[in-house]
Amino acid sequence: MNLVVPLLEPLRPYLEDPEVSEVMVNGPGSVFIEKDGVMRDTHIKGTDWTTGDPCHFLRERMVTISRHTSGDLSKDRPYFDGKLPDGSRISMIIPPLVPEPTLSIRKFSQKLLTIDQLCAGGLMSPEVGTSLIWAVQNKENILISGGTSAGKTTLLNALCDQIPMSDRIVTVDDVTELKLRQTNVVQMQARPAGDVPEVTIRDLVRLAMRLRPDRIIVGEVRGAEATELLKAMNSGHPGSMSTIHADSAFECLDKLADYLYDAGTQKPHDALCRSIGNTIKVVVQMERRAGVRRISEVIRLEGYDSERKEYKFR
C-alpha cells in the first residue's frame, strides 16, 4: 500500500484500515468500500481529489500506479489488472471503456485463518472442518466453488495449511494470493500479453507437472487450464486443489465440463463427466449472505453413471 496511498490520498483511511477488504472507485465522486462483508458508501466527492479536473487527476494517478507495477495503462491499453507490492490485487479501467476512471483494490490480508478459526467464526461447522482436514491429509482432489468474495481463497489458504511440510507444492495463479507456511514451494504467476509473449494459466499448469510436485494448487480455474488440471490430478498429483466461480456445487461440475469442452477436447460429454467424477473427490460450495461468508454445501463424488446421466455421490 506504500505505493498507492500517496497517489490516492483520499482513500488513505480505507487503504490503511485492516477491517476494509476492498476499495472500489466508480469515478472520483463515487467511492465504495467493503468492511466486515458489508458494502458502504464513503461519500467522497470529486473535489476531495483536486481543485482541478478530478477525472484527469485520477486517471494520471492510475497511469502512474500501472507503470510502477510493470503495467501500461494508456489510450492503447485502457485497462490493467495486476498486483501491488504488498500482494493486494488492483484492477483499473479508463475511458473510453468506462465513463470515468474506475479502479478496484482487493486488499491482501496478511492474517491467514486456520480451519479451527474458520469454524469458530461460523464459516463452517467443526464436523465439516474435520472432514475437510481429513480430505487434505488423505490427498483427495478438492474444488472450492462460490461467487465473487465468497471466501474461496480464504478457505483455500486454510486447507493448504493442512498439507504436510514434507510435500512439494507448486501453485499457479494470475495474481499470487496464497501464503504457504511450507518451505518446498514454487509459486508461478501468469503473464498477460504485452511487449512480451503471454504466459497463460494453462501454460503454467503444464509446466508445473514437470517440476516434480506432490500437489498442484491452481488459484482459480476458469478456462482451458481445466484440461491440464484434471490431467495433473490423474497423473501422480492427488491432493491438488483449485477454486471456481459457480453458484452451486452442481453448477460448478457443469461449468468444469464446459471448460473441458471449450478447450477443444474431442471426447463426448459423458466421457468428460466421467473424467470429472473420477478425479474430483470433494466439492465445497461457499456463499456470502448479508456480509456473512459460510460453506453452504459439501459433496463427495464417487464417479459418474453414464446410463442415468448423473454423478454418483458418497
How would you portray this structure in words?
This protein has helices at 12-15, 54-68, 115-120, 126-137, 152-160, 201-208, 225-233, 249-262, 269-279, and strands at residues 20-27, 30-35, 38-41, 79-83, 89-93, 102-106, 142-146, 169-173, 185-189, 215-218, 241-245, 282-289, 292-305, 310-313. It is α/β, with parallel strands linked by helices. It folds into two domains: 9-106, Beta-Lactamase, CATH 3.30.450; 115-313, 3-Layer(aba) Sandwich (Rossmann fold). Strand 13 and strand 14 (310-313) form a beta hairpin. Helix 6 (201-208) runs parallel beside helix 7 and helix 8 (249-262) packs across helix 9. The relative contact order is 0.11.
What would the keywords be for this entry?
alpha/beta; 2 domains; 14 strands; 314 residues; Beta-Lactamase; eight-stranded mixed beta sheet; globular; 26% strand; six-stranded antiparallel beta sheet; Rossmann fold
Mean pLDDT: 91
**Radius of gyration, taken over Cα atoms and rounded to an integer in Å:** 21 Å
Largest sheet: 8 strands, mixed
Distance between the termini: 46 Å
Report the uncertain regions.
Answer: none
Shape: globular
What CATH architecture label of the largest domain applies?
Answer: 3-Layer(aba) Sandwich
The named CATH superfamily of the largest domain: P-loop containing nucleotide triphosphate hydrolases
CATH-derived topology of the largest domain: Rossmann fold
| Strand content bin | 25-35%
Q: Structural class from helices and strands?
A: alpha/beta
Order of helix and strand elements from N to C terminus: HEEEHEEEHHEHEEHEHEHHEEE
- The total number of structural domains is 2
Estimate percent helicity: 25-40%
Number of strands: 14
Lateral strand order in the biggest sheet: 9-8-10-11-7-12-13-14
